[in-house]
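User: structure tokens for this one?
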Amino acid sequence: MGRTFPTDREEKRQVLLEGVDRVRHTLRAGADEAEANATLPLATVQALDDPGLLALKLPSHPWGCGSGPGYSTGGAGSGDVY
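Assistant:
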């Protein structure tokens, strides 16, 4: 816990992708046990936690995917400004 990620988007992406590559084997090895027990094995949780893959990731700007306050994200009138 407490891992600090790079602030540059591409650097952060690379760190996360490398973390995924490191845990791939552990995740596959524990898949049957996870399904049978309806919970992740401890080795799987540790493998995800060590590279920071369980850390909360937030958008780099407060409005997520480029929308701003007052923009509808779906439903009737989607895209309408309120």
